[in-house]
Amino acid sequence: MKSICVYCxxxxxxxxxxxxxxxxxAETMASQKIELVYGGGSVGVMGVMxxxxxxxxxxxxxxxxxxLMDKEVGHTGITQMIVTENMHQRKQKMADIADGFxxxxxxxxxxxxxxxxxxxxxxxxxxxxxxxLNVSGFYDPLFAQxxxxxxxxxxxxxxxxxxxxxxxxxxxxxxxxxxxATPDEVWFRDxxxx
Length: 194
Hints:
single chain
C-alpha cells in the first residue's frame, strides 16, 4: 500500500482526542512511506491531517476542484496539488490514485465519499480496503445503522464486514494493508440480493 485516501471534514471542533488520533495516523503513514491523498484543503480536519503529515516529511497529494481553489481554501504547502474542474472529477481522481480509503470524523461530504467508495467495493468496481478510524465512538451510530440494514435484509453481512472499524490508527492501517475481498464477499459478483 503506497497511498491512502483520507476522507475527513472541512471543519475541526478542536477535540484533543481527535487531534491525537490524527497525529498517530500521520505518524503511522509517514513512517511506513504511505502517501496521503486527500481533498486538498487547508482548513478543518483536512488541514490538520495534511499539516501533521508534512511535519513528518510525509508525501501529501491534494485533489481540489477549481471553485474551492478560487475561494482560497486550498493548501499551498503540500507535495502536490491536482486541480479538477468539478467535484465529480475530484472524487474520481482521488479514488483512482489511492490504494485504500480511510474515514476520519466529518460531515455530509465525508459520509457521501465513504458510501460511494463502499458501494463501488460492494459492486466489484475496485478491490481496495476501506477503514473507519472511529475516534471516541463518533461512528458508532453509523455502524449501528449498518447492523440494522443487515437485520432488515437490505444489506448482506459479508458486505457490512467489508469495512474495518478501529480506534487505533496503526491497527487500522495494518488491517487495510492485509485486505483482500474474495469474490463471494461482493454482491455484484455473486448476484445474491438476500
